[in-house]
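Exercise 7b. C-alpha cells:
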C-alpha cells in the first residue's frame, strides 16, 4: 500500500474519451493510493505531457488515432521515472512483444477486470513486470538471439584493413621473393632500401610481427600474398 501522502501518479493515454473517463473514475476511486494527474489522446500530447509531469505510471493504448504508440514508447520512459503499462485491445502478439522490447513494464487487454488493472498499475509502479510468461519467454529468446547474431569483432581484419595498397604490394613481393635481400626486393619495387625498410617497419607494427619471416608466415596464413589491385 502506498502512503496517503504519496499517491501513485498516473497519466492516461487513449484516443477514446469514454475510455479515459472510465479509467479516470476507476483510478481516482483508489485515492489516496493513486490518482490521475493527466490525460492525452495522441502521440504528441502523450510525449509532451509525460515530459512535463513525469508521472509514476503511464497507462498507454497502442493505437492512438491510427498511429502506433510503439514509436513513442522509448521517449515515454526516457525520464527514468515513468513506467509504462500498456492497456490495449491489440490482439497481434508480435505487437505486444514489441511493446515490451521498447520498454513497457506491463501489458494488459482492455477487457481485463477493473481490479486487475488497478493491481497491475501498482505492481508496475513497484518495479514488477506484468507480462504473461509466454511473452517473457519470446522476448527473452529474441534478445538472446539478436546478441548471438552480432558478428564477433575480428582483430586481424582490423589490422589488415589498416594496410595501404603500397604495403600490400610490398607484402606480396616479400612473399614472392622470400629468400631475396632487401636490396633485391627494393629493386623489384622501384624504391630505395631505406624506403623499403620504412615500409616494412610500418607493416610489422600494423600486423604485430617482428621480422620478414614472421611477416611471411602471417601473410600465408591470412592470404595476404596475392597482389594488391
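Sequence design result:
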Amino acid at each position: 500500500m502506498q502512503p496517503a501522502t504519496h499517491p501513485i501518479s498516473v497519466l492516461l493515454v487513449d484516443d477514446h474519451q469514454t475510455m479515459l473517463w472510465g479509467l479516470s473514475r476507476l483510478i481516482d476511486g483508489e485515492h489516496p493510493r493513486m490518482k490521475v494527474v493527466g490525460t492525452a489522446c495522441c502521440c504528441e500530447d502523450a510525449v509532451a505531457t509525460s515530459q512535463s509531469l513525469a508521472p509514476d505510471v503511464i497507462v498507454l493504448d497502442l493505437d492512438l488515432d491510427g498511429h502506433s504508440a510503439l514509436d513513442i514508447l522509448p521517449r515515454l520512459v526516457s525520464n527514468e521515472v515513468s513506467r509504462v503499462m500498456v492497456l490495449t485491445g491489440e490482439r497481434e502478439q508480435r505487437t505486444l512483444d514489441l511493446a515490451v522490447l521498447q520498454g513497457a513494464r506491463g501489458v494488459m487487454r482492455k477487457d481485463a477486470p477493473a481490479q486487475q488493472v488497478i493491481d497491475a498499475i501498482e505492481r508496475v509502479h513497484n518495479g514488477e513486470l506484468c507480462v504473461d510468461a509466454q511473452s517473457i519467454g519470446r522476448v527473452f529468446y529474441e534478445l538472446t538471439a539478436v546478441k548471438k547474431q552480432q558478428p564477433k569483432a575480428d582483430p586481424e581484419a582490423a589490422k589488415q584493413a589498416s594496410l595501404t595498397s603500397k604495403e600490400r604490394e610490398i607484402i606480396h613481393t616479400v612473399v614472392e621473393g622470400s629468400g631475396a635481400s632487401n636490396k633485391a626486393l627494393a629493386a623489384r619495387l622501384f624504391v630505395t632500401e631505406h624506403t623499403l625498410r620504412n615500409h616494412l617497419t610500418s607493416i610489422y607494427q600494423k600486423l604485430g610481427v617482428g621480422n620478414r619471416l614472421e611477416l611471411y608466415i602471417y601473410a600465408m596464413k591470412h592470404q595476404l600474398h596475392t597482389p594488391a589491385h
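Instructor comment: The chain has a mean pLDDT of 87. DSSP finds eleven helices and seven strands in the chain.
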